[in-house]
Design goal:
120 residues; mainly alpha; Arc Repressor Mutant, subunit A; 2 domains; 6 helices; 82% helix
Length: 120
């Protein structure tokens, strides 16, 4: 099984919605980098049983994302905040080169503070 960065990201968001055993298997496999055989030996089950449990957990994580879309929304939010940050820099640059408005400077400063708070 190829390790999938999407699974790790989805697990960070939806991991608590899995059973404790599913959480453990995902953590062993993705975070602790244990092989299927190592997990099977530690848990006293077959390698195939571990593989099936991980595949079911992965499928549930993707189903949660399909229904709830929290990861997608978070990525969209991050992208939007980055774009707002770039636009703030552009507005500040234009303001310095042209009218040097204190109101514009104060507004861009406040927008910058708000976007930083939203990105935390």
């Amino acid at each position: 099984m190829a390790k999938n960065l999407d699974v790790i990201n989805l697990f960070d968001i939806y991991g608590e919605m899995l059973t404790q055993k599913q959480q453990d298997f995902i953590c062993y496999y993705y975070n602790d980098d244990l092989s299927l055989a190592e997990i099977a030996e530690n848990e006293g089950i077959t390698r195939q049983g571990v593989r099936d449990a991980i595949k079911r957990a992965e499928a549930q994580l993707f189903a949660f994302e399909e229904h709830l879309g929290l990861y997608r929304r978070n990525e969209t939010l991050k992208s939007g905040l980055e774009e707002i940050g770039e636009l703030i820099k552009l507005i500040d640059e234009i303001n310095r080169k042209t009218i040097l408005s204190r109101e514009i400077n104060d507004a861009t400063s406040r927008i910058s503070t708000l976007t930083q708070m939203m990105g935390e």
